[in-house]
Amino acid sequence: MRMRPLERWLLSTRIRAWLLRRIEAPRLLPRLHLPPNPRCLEIGCGNGVGAMVLSARLHPDRLVCTDIDPDMLRRARRMLASPPRWARGADTSQIELLQADAADLPFADASFDAVFLFGVLHHIRDWPAALAETYRLLPPGGVFAFSEALLGGSPLLLNRFWRHVPFGRDELSAALEDAGFRIERFRTIAAGMWCFVIARRP
User: Which of 6, 35, 146, 202 is deepest in the core (most CB within 10 A)?
Assistant: First the structure.
């Protein structure tokens, strides 16, 4: 679902970019055991920071970045056209931007070696369907690496106001296993409210 304008702005700040580059990517991207020049998908690319990080760190042969919000895709296109200083060495020629629903992605089975997501799952109304769709897009041995907020059901977190879909660690782990994934790593920070997950299709 589309974010409120305030959250859209917050996710486009330098602070969010710094967190993705310095906190999330270092916890998710090393030791994924991907093939050279992998085929990669990012779900919920936002303003394009994740795309730049994935391109610079993984050197993919193909990197497709989807978002359901056309405004965020416009922001991503602007970033790719004029990268920030930290990303000016990244090759953006292999990055494709596409408007798409995470629960119904227009790709054939086993199209990608790896799928990535940075704090987007709680914005997807039918997030278990998005997990099943991610599983479909991976071949055996393919990896799903993501960071995510574990918001739970507390009204104090204002989930209804922010249009967040709340779930906790147990619910997320069960949904990954129901989709067919084998969880290799599940770590949390911030008193258990943010997680880093590596899951693989057996």
Answer: 146
Identify whether the C-beta of residue 128 lies closer than 8 Å to the C-beta of residue 178: yes
Q: pLDDT over 70 for what percent of the chain? A: 89
Phi, psi of 4 (to 5 degrees): -70, 150
Which of the four pLDDT bands, split at 50, 70 and 90, describes residue 14?
Answer: confident
Q: Is residue 171 in some structural domain?
A: yes
Instruction: Give a yes or no: residue 139 inside a domain.
Output: yes
Is the pLDDT confidence value at 6 over 60?
no
For the chain, helix (H) and strand (E) counts, in that order, are 8, 7
Structural domain boundaries enclosing 105: 38-200
| Phi–psi pair at 147, nearest 5 degrees | -115, 150
Tell me if 166 is assigned to some domain. yes
- Domain count for the chain: 1
Which residues have a Cβ under 8 Å from the Cβ of 132 and sit 6 or more positions away?
Answer: 179, 180
